[in-house]
Amino acid sequence: MASDPLVVGVDFGTLSGRAVVVRVRDGLELGTAVHDYRHGVLDRALPDGRPLPPDWALQVPQDYVDVLRHAVPAALADAGVDPADVIGIGTDFTACTMVPVKADGTPLNELPEFADNPHAYVKLWKHHAAQPQADRINHLASLRGESWLPRYGGLISSEWEFAKGLQLLEEAPEVYAAMDHWVEAADWIVWQLAGTYVRNACTAGYKGIYQDGYPSTDFLQALNPDFGGFVADKLDHPLGQLGDRAGGLTEQAAEWTGLTPGIAVAVGNVDAHVTAPAARAVEPGQMVAIMGTSTCHVMNADILADVPGMCGVVDGGIVPGLWGYESGQSGVGDIFAWFVEHNVPAEYHEQAKARGLSVHELLTELSSHQRIGEHGLIALDWHSGNRSVLVDHELSGVVVGQTLATRAEDTYRALLEATAYGTRVIVDSYTDAGIPVTELVIAGGLLRNPLLMQIYADVTNLPLSVIGSEQGPALGSAMHAAVAAKAYDDIHAAAKAMGSVKRGVYLPIPDNVEAYERMFVEYQELHDYFGRGANEVMHRLKARRRAAKGE
Q1: Is the peptide bond before 96 cis (omega within 30 degrees of 0)?
Q2: Quick one: a GO biological-process term for this protein (predicted)?
């Protein structure tokens, strides 16, 4: 009997890459492996020790290739399968993560003359140092009434291609001049696999301001005369649609991965968007929240509408035939991790270790017994800025109500709740724009926390479904590989056969919904006070911090 055809999906996250081997006919996950990036996130210094300013976040592209060299063969070994049965490989990436490269794809940081220049490295999605450039783009676009601006909720993020590209030009013109292509990491890794540079339509639309074309040369020159050629000289490239074949696996990539040369390599994709089909969330009204270090909210709709503060809306941006919407929160799991690492007394760590728990599990247990509002706190979830709906990475975190009686579990729960309130603001923005959210589907590592999930159900007053896979993005990438290999006609068919979801796992509790409604009113008041111009203290503090550091 012939073996079942298989596909491999590789999810490139913030700190590591994960590979999964999947059976094509039913989506069964046969094996998986993770490889941590050797350099992690460079947010304090370059590998040589050169310090970085605040709000920077860089990476080393070789770390991504190491995932192919280590995680893919390990996943194949874990699955115990014959690599010859693999018919395709698909990948997804964090976005917007940008790589400055030469014409042959060589990253500039690998050139001796740029090894000590931070602008030659990958600018990770959470690099927020281009906020001044984003502010100028937004101001000019608003003044000129640029038609593409409403497609992004009225604001362009500092995380995206144009803001980061303008920062590169203005702060390191020598690096900008040496750069031949300004490439999304999602496309760069496909380039390494297939030997061909194909720009994927997803990141072009959501992160590259591509809406039936790019912003005009006239607009770019108005930002900076030397920026006028940015699209033509650095960015523009033929687009590949999601699920298309970018090319065949090269001999070199086959050697890295242990796979067969020539198998299908799918066009690149974004970790959040690729997860929606994996969770069978391909119909209007099903919002997927991919919850990890940050949260990305994606949803399909059959109408086009202007949603304030959304990250973008793209025709076919998630699945063909529907408008794909995106919003997000820049910090979620990152906030919880920061609190545990820097704000929890040693005795909690000792107690957790003695009981065989993580500190997160201990704080969750301790706070789960509280009544809603018992801790007397309200927090803003802006420790990494605000991606939606304010689109302002100069904003910062707040906890109101602390007293000498406040304990670690109180603040921890308040931070959990703050992220739920942030999602509620996003959900409300869609509902108010005439695009109702009927179901919240959760994917990502944070779904393992049942208290957090129940809080989200209660705060949003929505049923929470849970993806059936622990490897949602990698599974979604594998599904796109199956489409690229012609095993399915389109991603709708692949989602039906290979996707997995558990519906209505968490349901709103009416008493909790009522109690959280009162708390959410408090959150909204703080949200608007600090975020909509009534008090600019957060911006002033950021400016003073930079001045004090001599930047």
Answers
A1: yes
A2: L-arabinose catabolic process to D-xylulose 5-phosphate
